[in-house]
Specification:
Blueprint: H1 7-10, E1 15-18, H2 36-57, H3 67-71, E2 76-81, E3 93-101, E4 104-107, E5 113-116, E6 119-126, H4 135-147, E7 155-156, H5 161-171
Parallel strand pairs: 6-7
Antiparallel strand pairs: 1-2, 2-3, 3-6, 4-5
The structure holds coenzyme A.
Coenzyme A binds at residues 57-58, 124-126, 131-137, 159-160, 162-163, 165-166, 169.
Site (Crucial for catalytic activity): 58
Catalytic activity: L-lysyl-[alpha-tubulin] + acetyl-CoA = N(6)-acetyl-L-lysyl-[alpha-tubulin] + CoA + H(+)
Domain N-acetyltransferase: 1-185
């Protein structure tokens, strides 16, 4: 996913972690620094465009990830950029993973309600042209380390077939207990 501005300069690392402040990361020494407000606008554009692309990929009626939603929630977004060498390019974004803690009433296998507050996978998207190249796994692995959680501790609302296969393949996860209401959105 390409943008009119220089993604490579804006996001110096392969994976950028964004929280509700949507702070532009520190730039590499020697890179010209546009006004901070412009940089934040660029970050917001990336978040909005990723949110739209993810909603489209999942056939959702509206994006569940946007800059304004990020600013009003305590979610964390991991953004993966393309680091393949492309001379004179402005860089590109490959995808993202958004997580956050949510209070949930979970039905267990005896149909009892339990209040829990797990880390939830809230949105996850890899650009169509780059799916099944290991990028999703790279992002997921990075997130697990940063958040210090094990895959089986995560909650996911209505995972797509692709995500179910992904979790099964990489983390051997498959047993789920269907829940009454979701938390997406
Ligand atoms: N069909 C079936 N399984 C798929 C798939 C597809 N089109 N794309 C990915 N997978 C699963 C498979 O298990 C695959 O292994 P395989 O190729 O050996 O069958 C594995 O994921 C590949 O892992 P990886 O390359 O690390 O995943 P990825 O970079 O494709 O990222 C997703 C995984 C789910 C984020 C990505 O496919 C995606 O963006 N899908 C569309 C949006 C979506 O469904 N998001 C989840 C929201 S609940």
């Amino acid at each position: 996913m390409e943008f009119s501005f220089d993604v490579d300069a804006l996001l110096p690392e392969r994976i950028t972690v964004l929280d509700q402040h949507l702070r532009p990361p520190a730039r590499r020494p020697g890179t010209t620094t546009p006004a901070r407000v412009d940089l934040q606008q660029q970050i917001m554009t990336i978040v909005d465009e990723l949110g739209k692309a993810s909603a489209k990929a999942q056939h959702l009626p509206a994006p569940i990830t946007s800059a304004s939603r990020m600013q009003s929630n305590r979610h964390v977004m991991y953004v993966l950029k393309d680091t393949s060498a492309r001379p004179a390019g402005k860089g590109a974004v490959i995808g993202f993973l958004k997580v956050g803690y949510k209070k949930l009433f979970v039905l267990d296998d005896r149909e009892a309600h339990n209040e829990v507050e797990p880390l939830c996978i809230l949105d996850f998207y890899i650009h169509e042209s780059l799916q099944r190249h290991g990028h999703g796994r790279e992002l997921f692995h990075y997130m697990l380390q940063k958040e210090r959680v094990e895959p089986h501790q995560l909650a996911i609302d209505r995972p797509s077939q692709k995500l179910l296969k992904f979790l099964n393949k990489h983390y051997n996860l498959e047993t789920t207990v269907p829940q009454v209401r979701g938390f997406k959105g």
